[in-house]
Design goal:
Layout: E1 2-4, H1 12-18, E2 23-27, H2 30-42, E3 47-51, E4 66-68
Parallel strand pairs: 1-2, 1-4, 2-3
Amino acid sequence: MCQTKVCGTGVLSPLLAEIGHNVTGIDLSDGMLGRAKEKADDRSLSAEFRIDDAENLSFEDELFDVVINGAALPIMDSTTSGALK
């Protein structure tokens, strides 16, 4: 399973779903998540989008095989435990 943190309007999530990944995109913005879901739906791709905090995730540890976090790095607090590990 693959997670995209701070997925925004869904640039990466649909691409990952298209090549066969089980994708969960997270963001704090319901509007951004709505647009991301539209992009995936327009391409008939299966991806889950949900509101969550990238610095305090509600997922159990080690649930995802891959976490893509590139867009979040400039806005995350570098002192957050584990955020940049």
